[in-house]
Design brief:
Helices cover about 30% and strands about 15% of the residues. The protein is of the alpha/beta class. The protein has a five-stranded mixed β-sheet with strand order 3-2-1-4-5, with helices on one face. The chain is rod-shaped and about 115 Å long. The N and C termini lie far apart (about 105 Å).
Amino acid sequence: MNFQRGRVREEPEINLIPMIDVLLLILIFMLVTTTYAKFAELQINLPQASGEASSAPSNQLNVAVDATGRYAINSNTTVFNGVASLSDALRKAAGEQKDPTIIINADAKATHQSVINIMEAARMAGYGKITFTTQKQGQ
């Protein structure tokens, strides 16, 4: 039995304005509380070395690399054709020395890859003693 005949039934509706207000409030809250890291302004303090110059034992190989990627072993320029060829050049420069110390002299603008190439060549040649030269501050 329908006693409300002729009466129009109201359709429920969703009011979007309060929902938009809540979303904008959440957005403003996120913008205010979020911190943004600025990687472009990263300040790195590289270590400085100070100490006495060590005496140069005879079992050292000085390997230098400049900013353009040219290599030199004991002041003799070496053509880089890959890590294997650099490893052969290290063996040839070492001669009869057993496990010489590899001293890496890298230019400040040399790429990281060029230094890694020297380290990998030393590993392939079987040399495990690797060190880096440093420069006193102000020189």
